[in-house]
Design a protein that fits this description.
about 350 residues, five-stranded antiparallel β-sheet, four-stranded mixed β-sheet, 12 helices, Phosphoribosylformylglycinamidine cyclo-ligase, PurM-like_C_dom
C-alpha cells in the first residue's frame, strides 16, 4: 500500500482486515433473496426469490444520535449497532413492510478494528433479529474529522410489502372501508428504555445530576447509569409479523424524536386525533428520574422521549383482544393507551 497515504492517517490494510473480519458476520444474516456476498460495488437482492407477488419497496435511513457519546465514554460498543438497525427497521415496519436488507456507514478519524468489529457485530445481531440481510456498507477513515476514539454511524434499510398491505390504512374514494375510524384502539408497545432519542438532553441531565456513567443507577437496579442508557432500542418486527399477515393492523407509529406528541399523528388521517388514557401512560422509573432531575414539564417529556412506549398500534376494537393475545405470545406487554376521536 501507499506509505504516504498511511502517513497521512489512512490505513488501507487495516480496512481490508476489517472487511475480512466482518465477512462471517454478514454471512450470518443471509436470507432468501440475497445474491452474492459483500465486497462488490453493490449489494444484490432478488424480490421474487423473497416470495413477493406485487411488492412495493420501502426504505428508511437513520443514525443513533449522541447516544454514541455514551458508548465512547463507557467503552460499551456491543449494542449500539442494534440501535442502528432498530431505528431504521422499525421505521420501515411503520409502512407495513418487513425489512429485507441493510447497509451501514461507519466513519472514524483513526480506524480501531477491534471497536469497529464489535460495532458491526451488533449491527449483524440486529439484522438477524429483524430478519434482514447485511449486504454491504462503508467504512470511512477520515483523519481530523473526529476526536480520538470517536466514530459515527448511519444505516439504510430496505423492506417490502405487498401493494395491498401497505400501512397506514386511510379510506379514500377507492378504498375498501378498512381504514382508520373514530373508536379504533391504540395499543402501546413498551420501550426498552430511552431507545435512541433525546440523548443530548439525557447527557445534560446526567452531567448536572452529579452521577457518572459508571455509578449505580438510582432508577435501574443492578445497572450503572451508562448501562441503563446504552440499553439498545427494541425491534418490533417479530411481534408485529403475525399481525401484519392477519391484516389486523391499521397503523403503527414508531415513537422516536418528537415522542407520542409528534409521531402518532403522522399515521393518522387529518379527520382523526389520538385520545389518550392518561392512567395507562405512567412513566417508568428511568423517565421519572429524567423528569425530576431535568425539571421537565409533562409536555416536554412527551415530545422529547418515548416515555416508556416505543410503538403504537392502531387496531379495530373487534380485533383488539386477539391482537393483545398475539403480542403477549410474542413476549410483549401491550397496554391499551387510548383510542381515536374525530377532529
Amino acid at each position: 500500500m501507499s506509505d504516504a497515504y498511511k502517513q497521512a492517517g489512512v490505513d488501507i490494510d487495516a480496512g481490508d482486515r476489517l472487511v475480512k473480519a466482518i465477512g462471517p458476520l454478514a454471512k450470518s444474516t443471509m436470507r432468501p433473496g440475497v445474491m452474492g456476498s459483500i465486497g462488490g460495488f453493490g449489494g444484490l437482492f432478488d424480490l421474487k426469490d423473497a416470495g413477493f407477488t406485487d411488492p412495493i419497496l420501502v426504505s428508511g435511513t437513520d443514525g443513533v444520535g449522541t447516544k454514541l457519546k455514551i458508548a465512547f465514554d463507557t467503552g460499551l460498543h456491543d449494542t449500539i449497532g442494534i440501535d442502528l438497525v432498530a431505528m431504521c427497521a422499525n421505521d420501515v415496519l411503520a409502512q407495513g413492510a418487513l425489512p429485507l436488507f441493510f447497509l451501514d456507514y461507519f466513519a472514524t478519524g483513526k480506524l480501531d478494528t477491534g471497536v469497529a468489529e464489535t460495532v458491526i457485530a451488533g449491527i449483524a445481531e440486529g439484522c438477524r433479529e429483524a430478519g434482514c440481510a447485511l449486504i454491504g456498507g462503508e467504512t470511512a477513515e477520515m483523519p481530523g474529522m473526529y476526536g480520538a476514539g470517536e466514530y459515527d454511524l448511519a444505516g439504510f434499510c430496505v423492506g417490502a410489502a405487498e401493494r395491498d398491505a401497505l400501512l397506514p390504512l386511510h379510506d379514500g374514494p377507492n378504498e375498501s372501508g378498512r381504514g382508520m375510524k373514530a373508536g379504533d384502539v391504540m395499543i402501546g408497545l413498551p420501550s426498552s428504555g430511552a431507545h435512541s432519542n433525546g440523548y443530548s438532553l439525557i447527557r445534560k441531565i446526567v452531567a448536572g445530576s452529579g452521577l457518572g456513567w459508571h455509578d449505580a443507577a438510582p432508577f435501574a437496579d443492578g445497572k450503572t447509569v451508562g448501562e441503563a442508557f446504552i440499553t439498545p432500542t427494541k425491534l418490533y418486527i417479530n411481534a408485529l409479523k403475525p399481525l401484519l399477515a392477519a391484516r389486523q393492523v391499521k397503523g403503527f407509529a414508531h415513537i422516536t424524536g418528537g415522542g407520542l406528541t409528534d409521531n402518532v399523528p403522522r399515521v393518522l388521517p387529518e379527520t382523526l386525533t389520538p385520545r389518550y388514557d392518561e392512567n395507562a401512560l405512567a412513566l417508568p422509573p428511568l423517565f421519572q428520574w429524567l423528569m425530576a432531575q431535568g425539571n421537565l414539564s409533562p409536555a416536554d417529556m412527551r415530545r422529547t422521549f418515548n416515555c416508556g412506549i416505543g410503538g403504537v398500534l392502531i387496531v379495530d376494537p373487534s380485533d383488539a383482544g386477539d391482537v393483545i393475545t398475539t403480542l403477549e405470545a410474542a413476549g410483549e406487554e401491550p397496554v391499551v393507551i387510548g383510542d381515536l376521536a374525530g377532529t
